What we know:
Structural class: mainly alpha
Radius of gyration: 10 Å
Oligomer: single chain
Distance between the termini: 12 Å
Order of helices and strands: HHHH
Shape: globular
Amino acid sequence: MRLTIFWERMAAHFGAAYADSFARDYVMSELGGRTVYEALEAGWEAKAVWRAVCAAVDVPAELR
């Protein structure tokens, strides 16, 4: 998954403004105690991060 697709999906689920806030502030155990930004900077693939977000916040199937 490309980062552009990842951020489009984040915006579709959270809204553009909150997606950025969530990505910066929400620490997820699914990402080893990292935020979305930290996981991406650490080299996690966008697809794996998106799956973790989906699991953490119950993203509806049509947005997965």
